[in-house]
Structure formats: structure tokens, C-alpha cells
Design brief:
With 322 residues, the chain is α+β, with helices and mostly antiparallel strands. The protein is 36% helix and 19% strand. Helix 1 crosses helix 3.
Length: 322
């Protein structure tokens, strides 16, 4: 499928790059990139795709996206008074000994959790938006301090929702105790087995099926069966976006034992059929990436990144390298 890769303006000397875009329409195709991205939308409404999550957003939005996580915003309504502020930075920025100290533990966890995409709301949104607007002005080292303040704010916030499912982005692990980590890891390693049963997992933890069921629901707010279905559907969504496999093949590769049940569950929990999900995600696959007038450069996934067009003008987008 045509998943585009974004070649971001981030350069090796940069700590981060910030893009401040006024009144630009969202017509970008579904894409990803190795950098993390924090995206603030003001004054625009539309539909947002993050992994296998599709949601409406109204007038404002704030989402942290992890490396290589597929994403797309469709701002289909009035863009005449909109503003989008985007911060992009690399994960290896936090690999130094300095950032391994305890004071940064919450930020490190935030960055790992971003593999599923995180939406922030409430007071966190308001405070983060103020900091991001301040960051659009070059204030020297103060920008670095405010960037760390921003990440610290987000890392402690409880006003958040994860977007992509565990099956789509199975990289983050819960930190609520060793037993739930074992259960979580076991499901992610074995969900493709069509005959996977709750009894296997209960045995792993030396618990009865009844005790394990109560334990699992306490920590995940889902039954074992519901969690397993979510993981399998999430994996199926990734295959729908990331491969050219046919739908029947995806069904069996995701742990489902028959196509009819797969299609029924997919429509129940994703509000569309697998075929419709794939079609909707790639509606803009005909995007003409050679005529961009913004700093973003999109390269088709099957192409190399050399010798591709880069725009000489940035229209109404300001780019700041920090």
C-alpha cells in the first residue's frame, strides 16, 4: 500500500524543530517517520487517524505520536483561521547519561508510551498549548528549557487517552505489577494462535481461571476475551495498512479462525469492514507529493529518498530549528 514516509526538516545539530503553520489545509496522505511528533491543532475540525484509531476532532487537538506510527489529519472544515504547531524530535535525544537520571524517568516512559499515540485534553491541553505557542519564537536557550517543561507536563498528566490499540503498537508495557506484565507479554507473543485460551495464561501465573479473570479485568478494565480481540484486530489493522495481503490472509494471520467471524468483529469494533478501513485510510493515496508548498516532504514507501523534490518556499509555515 502507499504509506508515505515524511522526510522532516529536522537536522543533526537540532534538539528539535518546530513548525508553525497558519491557515494551511490538511491534505497530507497517511504517513510516518522515525521522529516523535507533538501536534497541536487550533481552529480546525476534521478527522484524525493514528494507527488503527479514527476519531473526529473539533476546533482543537493535541497528540503525541511515536516513531513510525502511521498518522493523518483530515481538516475537512473551515481552515481560514486555523493554526497548527508541530514539534519533531528524535528518540535518541534522550539516550545520554544525563537523561537516564531518575528525574527524567516519567519523560522516558512518556516517550515509550507514545508508540500508541497519546491525546491530551483538559488543563494539560491548555498549559501545553501556551508552552508550544511560546516555543514558536526563538528565545535561545529558553526554548530548550520550555521544551523540557512541556515534556515534563505531559509525562505527569492523567488527562490523556491512548489512541492506537495494543495490537497495532505492541511496544509499550504496563507498569502496574510484575504479574500483569507477564500476562500482557504472553498475550502479545501468542495472540496469533487460534486456539489460545484463558486457562493457559492462568496456569502461567499459578491462578485459577476465576481468580485470573478478576485480576485481569481489574488492571485492564477489559475481560481477557475482549483484550484478545482488541489485540488481534489491532494487528489486523496494521497489516491492512502496511501490507498488500488479502483480507482472508490477514484474518488468519491475526489469530482469527474464520473470515465471517473476523468481518463481524471488525465491523462491530471498528464501525466498518476491513475493506472499508483500508480504503478510507488511503483515500488520499493520489496525493501529488512533487508539488508541496510546505516543509513536509513525502516519499512513497517503495521509493528511495534520494533526489526527491524539496520545496524552495514554505508558504505560510514558519520553521524554527532549536
Amino acid at each position: 500500500m502507499k504509506v508515505y514516509r515524511e522526510i522532516t526538516p529536522l537536522q543533526d545539530p537540532d534538539i528539535f524543530v518546530i513548525l508553525d503553520s497558519l491557515n494551511n489545509s490538511f491534505d497530507y496522505p497517511i504517513h510516518n517517520h522515525p521522529e516523535l511528533e507533538l501536534n497541536l491543532v487550533l481552529g480546525s475540525s476534521g478527522t484524525r487517524i493514528i494507527g488503527d484509531s479514527t476519531e473526529r476532532y473539533a476546533n482543537q487537538d493535541l497528540v503525541l505520536i511515536g516513531p513510525y506510527l502511521f498518522h493523518k489529519w483530515d481538516g475537512v472544515e473551515d481552515q481560514t483561521h486555523s493554526r497548527v504547531i508541530t514539534i519533531q524530535f528524535r528518540m535518541d535525544l534522550f539516550n545520554s547519561h544525563f537523561f537516564e537520571k531518575n528525574r527524567f524517568s516519567n519523560i522516558r516512559k512518556l516517550l515509550l508510551d507514545s508508540s500508541r499515540g497519546i491525546k491530551f485534553h483538559g488543563k494539560t491541553f491548555e498549559e501545553a498549548a501556551k508552552l508550544m505557542i511560546e516555543l514558536t519564537e526563538d528565545s535561545g536557550f529558553s526554548n530548550v528549557v520550555n521544551f523540557l517543561k512541556l515534556l515534563n507536563l505531559l509525562s505527569y498528566s492523567q488527562e490523556r487517552n491512548y489512541l492506537a490499540s495494543e495490537g497495532f503498537s505492541p511496544h509499550s508495557t504496563p507498569s502496574k505489577g510484575n504479574r500483569i506484565q507477564i500476562a500482557y507479554a504472553y498475550i502479545l507473543q501468542n495472540f496469533k494462535q487460534k486456539d489460545m485460551r484463558i486457562g493457559e495464561l492462568a496456569d502461567q501465573l499459578n491462578m485459577s481461571i476465576s481468580a485470573f479473570s478478576h485480576f485481569f479485568k481489574k488492571y485492564t478494565n477489559k475481560s481477557f476475551r475482549q483484550f484478545l480481540i482488541d489485540v488481534r484486530l489491532g494487528h489486523a489493522c496494521r497489516l491492512l495498512l502496511d501490507t498488500d495481503m488479502d483480507i482472508k490472509e490477514i484474518c488468519f494471520s491475526s489469530g482469527f479462525n474464520n473470515a465471517a467471524n473476523f468481518n463481524r468483529l471488525f465491523k462491530k469494533y471498528r464501525s466498518c469492514t476491513p475493506k472499508e478501513f483500508r480504503r478510507k485510510a488511503f483515500e488520499e493515496a493520489s496525493f501529488d507529493w512533487t508539488k508541496q508548498n510546505t516543509p513536509w516532504q513525502f516519499v512513497p514507501s517503495e521509493a528511495t529518498v534520494d533526489n526527491f523534490f524539496k520545496p524552495s518556499t514554505y508558504a505560510t509555515t514558519k520553521v524554527l530549528h532549536i
